[in-house]
Amino acid sequence: MNQNFLEKLSECVEFGKINLASPYPPQMKGFPGADEITKEALEAGVTPTEILNEALITAMNKVGQKFSENKIFVPQMLLSAKAMGASMIHLKPFFANGTVQRKGTFILGTVYGDLHDIGKNLFGMMVEGAGWEVIDLGIDVKIEKFLEAIEQNPTAVVGISALLTTTMVNMKPVIDAIKSVSPDTKVIVGGAPLSVEFAQSIGADGYGKNPQEGIMWLDKIVA
Amino acid sequence: MPDNFQSFQFTFPEVAPTISEVLDFLHSTDLEEEHPAVVFIRETLGELSFDTGITGGYIVKEIVELNVKSGILSIDGNELNPGRQVCGYIRESTQAAFFLCTAGEDFTRLSNELNEKGDIMEAYLLDTIGSLTVENAIGLIHENLRLTYHAQDLKISNRYSPGYCNWPLSDQQALFELIGENSTGITLSDSSLMTPRKSVSGVIGIGKNLKHHEYGCKICSNTTCIYRKLLSAESV
Questions:
Q1: B168/A166 touch (CB, cutoff 8 Å), yes or no
Q2: How many CB pairs under 8 A join A and B?
Q3: Fewer beta carbons within 10 Å, N or C terminal of chain B?
């Protein structure tokens, strides 16, 4: 029974079936979506941890994999993320009261001088779906704002995004500042013009070529 | 040569992207008609009617010196630092048009509202429509410039913007100072970002012997740059 709920929920998230009213995908029209199935599953005794690990994370892993293989693009990924969000609303109270343990806290922001946010937002949603608490600092994030967030969340991992060759150079001063006040804080960087070599050259601990790679790196550091 | 800012205003229908343009840009031409993204784009393009706020223009100045080696452009007592790449692209220019264009505040405001409601896909799509709208608007201004100078037997270059083709974003400050007072209402933050967000700025070279140069996308590592996406959509 539980497995049935989890499989259905996973399918809803993978294909972007948000709720009963959602007409898409056509083959699921008229059926409950991620919203209703999560509610029913919890009422039937499926644990929030099972929902997170065996439905949401599984589904978003499949979505991330398809995205990294160019089998789907941003609109499909965002629709899946939206379906995941409809499910997560029911899980939030269990995160808040400690019933479900997060893997960690992830502070995320687009580097100062850069206002591009879609890559950051997508990664943030994927990371949340992978079981992390995400603190999104937004775009054009100054060094001080990163440091302030780290001070408030000393064990957090930090992610910095940039979309321009002319703004990715702003990442190094941010990483230098973070490492000078909090040497143990891990930093991952990402964004279209970056490379693993560039990430290493600016002192980043990790680099995500795509959301999937970033999540694998995050999972590895908490393993 | 216009020595003041030549202004243009557009209604949304004049510069709105088509549904195909939006889907091409998103690499999503294969999406089904009933996919929520396609439905949203179709409905939004039909419903949006921003009659104000889409505006832009340019000012043309004589080039005093264009030094490709140093990447410096000297104009009217001001210096810009577009870098070697951009200076190389416009090296035969004798004049330069400095442009600004914005799709206005409404796209960003509505996109933020959608994001806050959790409609993240819709917010992204609206933001994309805004990006393509401002590109279409500056495209019309670019064409106006081409026709104006074609009549004088002069050629014009592609357009280049701070932040792209290795032109430092911080040079926005000097660019805005050079353009001076204008009717667009675009402002700069201390990080050199423009408000409204859906705005573009930059330079177009003008000259009798100007050669056309393609954008250097093939040698650039930025695979998601708007110019590369627009070029790849055009070549479909």
A1: yes
A2: 93
A3: C
CATH number for position B193: 3.40.109.40
Chain B partners of A63 at a C-beta cutoff of 8 Å? Answer: none
Contact B86, B167 (CB under 8 A): yes
Asked if A115 contacts B197 with a C-beta cutoff of 8 angstroms, the reply is yes
- DSSP H or E segment with residue B131: helix B120-150
Inspect the interface and report whether the beta carbons of A193 and B222 lie closer than 8 Å. yes
Q: How far is B26 from chain A (nearest CA, A)?
A: 7
DSSP annotation string for A71-97: SS-HHHHHHHHHHHHHHHHHHHHHHHT
Q: What's the whole-model pTM score?
A: 0.85
Q: How far is CA A137 from CA A106, A108, A141, in A?
A: 11, 6, 7
Domain with B60, as residue range(s), is 6-234
Identify the H or E element spanning B156.
strand B155-160
Q: pLDDT at residue A101 above 90?
A: no
Give the number of other CB atoms < 10 A from CB of residue A162.
27
pLDDT, residue B2, reads 59
What was the pLDDT predicted at A166? 84
CATH number for domain A105-222, candidates 3.60.15.10, 3.40.50.10840, 3.75.10.10, 3.40.50.280: 3.40.50.280
User: What is the average per-residue pLDDT within B141-163?
Assistant: 95
Class of domain A2-96: mainly alpha
Interval A165-190: pLDDT, tens: 888 999 999 999 999 999 999 999 99
Residue ranges of chain B whose CB lies within 8 Å of a chain A CB:
26-28, 31-32, 34-37, 118-121, 124-125, 127, 162-164, 166-170, 189, 191-193, 197, 220-225
Query: Which residue type, as a one-letter code, is found at position B104?
Result: G
* A141: β partners: A111
Query: CA of A108: how far to CAs of A91, A123, A137, A138, A184, in Å?
Result: 22, 9, 6, 8, 17
Cα angle, residue A112 at apex, residues A103 and B86 outer, rounded to 5°:
130
- Is the pLDDT at B233 greater than 60? The verdict is no
- The pLDDT value given to residue A59: 93
Tokens of A157: 């991992």
For residue A160, the surrounding DSSP H or E stretch is: strand A157-161
Q: How far is A109 from chain B (nearest CA, A)?
A: 15
Q: What is the mean pLDDT of residues B50-75?
A: 92
**CA B162 – CA B168 distance, rounded (Å):** 6
Percentages helix, strand, coil for chain A (3-state, rounded to 5) are: 55, 10, 35
